[in-house]
Amino acid sequence: MKPFKIRDIDIDPPLILSPMAGVTDYTFRRLIKRRGGVGLVVSEFISVEGLTRNNPKSKRQMRFDEEERPFAVQIFGGQVERMAMGAEMAEEVGADILDINCGCPAPKVVKNGGGSGLLRDLPRLEEILKAIKRSITIPLTLKVRTGYSDSTINVVDVAKMAEQCGVEHIQVHGRTREQGYKGLANWDLIREVKQAVSVPVSGNGDVTTIEYAMKRWHESGTDGILIGRGAMQNPWIFRQIRDVIEGREPYQPDLEEKRSVLLEFFSMCREEMPEIVALGKMKQLAGQFTKGLPGGALFRQTLYHSHSAEEILDNITIYFEDLRAGNRYGDGRIEADADVIDSCEAFTSIDVKPELTEAAVLG
Ligand SMILES: Cc1cc2nc3c(=O)[nH]c(=O)nc-3n(C[C@H](O)[C@H](O)[C@H](O)COP(=O)(O)O)c2cc1C
């Protein structure tokens, strides 16, 4: 396992923060990048319909900071010209890589021919890829599911076609559109893609521990690994995997560091967004993050019922002080499994109102 290149861009370590709408925004990406071990970050998926019609939200979603580089912008849509225009806009703002979403299962996206809808219309996907290649000079990459449904698995054909069109990195989430988030990702299909093309291939699906990452990586032979939901549960997962790759004991943050990461996130959110949205974001991260901590369930309940920044900060202080003192918080149990927070489904409107975002974040 070693770093790889997308054209001349080093992906080092070969670990990618997987794009998540409503999650991997400017704030979250920097939070994760600062923990170390991340070779590439990707924006949330951005609607080209919004971008090319000057929708302020879509434009805001392309914002990034130098500390994030290398940085990829991911766009979605089904119209050839608009996809090419959106790609150009991403290059203009300075993105290092342009990524196309071929995986979002949301009906609204699929109905308009975008996301995983493109897996049902390869001629259109080919046209889009060729048009984008003519409009940009930065590398073009693709993130795909394995097919539209179990009976139409076509990821190997898609990958071969994409390579012919000049795509320089293929990222495979090992589930079909039909599957949504059910079952486990199929890493055998990911291996088949790796064997079928010569551009770099990265695998994705269900990596939440170091052991699982290493196992899937060895078995599939992929160049890189993408981690999405696992990064919310454990922001240090990239650094820990890198430690193991480089022959070190994996880094273990102490309680104080866990507490300060929540506070850092909250303070970054409050700088960037209205208070109510910042509260929602905090609840979202804390909800995933505390799954592995004793008494996390009760702590989350307390946070969900906090209505101001002060209340949230007080509750974080109490929770971590109790843990440090060895007191039991709530029933003191550690939950085994994290619930799946929803996918891109909740975030497909190009004009999401803050209160809707809040609802979706909490939902
Ligand atoms: C809340 C959420 C939002 C997502 N949004 C996107 C997105 O905008 N673009 C994309 O390509 N995939 C998106 N995905 C899919 C993830 O990038 C990833 O492929 C999937 O979660 C499987 O990886 P994991 O098991 O490591 O989370 C999203 C997933 C979740 C849970």
Structure ligands: flavin mononucleotide
Q: What would you say the CATH architecture of the largest domain is?
A: Alpha-Beta Barrel
CATH fold name of the largest domain? TIM Barrel
What structural class should be given to the helix and strand makeup?
Answer: alpha/beta
**Percentage beta strand:** 5-15%
Point out poorly predicted stretches.
Answer: 349-363
- Helical percentage: 40-55%
Order of helices and strands: EEEHEHHEHEHHEHEHEHEHHHHHHH
Number of helices: 16
Relevant CATH superfamily of the largest domain? Aldolase class I
Question: Residue-averaged pLDDT, rounded?
Answer: 91
Radius of gyration: 20 Å
Q: Which overall shape is indicated by the principal axes computed on the Cα atoms?
A: globular
Instruction: Give the domain tally.
Output: 2
Biggest beta-sheet profile: 8 strands, parallel, barrel
The level-1 CATH class of the largest domain: Alpha Beta
Descriptive overview:
- By secondary structure, the protein is of the alpha/beta class.
- It has 2 domains: 4-245, TIM Barrel (Alpha-Beta Barrel); 255-362, no CATH class.
- Helices cover 45% and strands 13% of the residues.
- It contains 16 helices and 10 strands.
- An 8-stranded parallel beta barrel has the order 3-4-5-6-7-8-9-10, surrounded by 6 helices.
- β1 and β2 (9-11) form a beta hairpin.
- The longest helix is centred in the C-terminal third of the chain and has 18 residues, at 255-272.
- Residues 349-363 have low confidence and may be disordered.
- Residues 18-23, 44-45, 74, 101, 103-104, 143, 173, 204-207, 227-230, 341-344 line the site of flavin mononucleotide (FMN).
